[in-house]
Design brief:
- By secondary structure, the protein is α/β, with parallel strands linked by helices.
- It is built from four helices and seven strands.
- The strands form two sheets. It has a five-stranded mixed sheet with strand order 3-5-4-6-7, with helices on both faces. A two-stranded antiparallel ribbon has the order 1-2.
- Strand 1 and strand 2 form a beta hairpin.
- Helix 2 packs across helix 4.
- The longest helix has 17 residues.
- The structure holds zinc ion (ZN).
- The site of zinc ion (ZN) has 8 residues, from loops.
Length: 147
């Protein structure tokens, strides 16, 4: 049995939890708010929440940059949700509304939406512009997660 553990940021209260790698798949709860650390759904984050998850999560973080007015973004939303069900708990999937987090989108130079970006250890390792289906999102994220 491995004693290896990871930092997992709670999607509800954003507290950093230490979770044994072996326990990741056993539906761990947050030590602070006692809600599930994984719900199979993407987590909507503002700029501060994004910074916290990307900086502290030891799981790869897949970000969907989107906006409400963007038709392809709305079309991709259920695909991204399906990908979250598939990729959790090995990764964290989050959504950032670029109209609400304009400074963040500008700093990261998000030029078109939807854009997905993958962060590992606080660093962006891959970016993909344009809508993808669930299977392609899963494939894309897995192919870059150990980059
Ligand atoms: Zn919590």
């Amino acid at each position: 049995m491995s004693t290896d553990s990871l930092h997992v940021v709670c999607p509800h209260c954003h507290t950093t939890n230490r979770v044994a790698r072996d326990a990741l798949s056993q539906a761990p709860d947050c030590g602070r708010c006692h809600r599930p650390l994984f719900s199979g759904l993407p987590v909507a984050l503002d700029e501060a929440g994004f910074e916290r998850h990307v900086a502290r999560s030891q799981l790869p973080v897949v970000v969907d940059f989107w906006a409400a007015w963007c038709g392809p973004c709305r079309a991709m939303a259920p695909q991204f949700e399906a990908a979250a069900r598939e990729l959790e708990p090995g990764m964290r999937l989050v959504k950032v509304n670029t109209e609400e987090a304009q400074a963040l989108a500008a700093r990261l130079q998000i030029r078109s939406i939807p854009t997905m970006a993958l962060f590992v250890g606080g660093r962006e390792v891959a970016r993909q512009a344009g809508a993808l289906g669930a299977a392609d999102i899963v494939r894309w994220a897995r192919s870059h997660q150990s980059a």
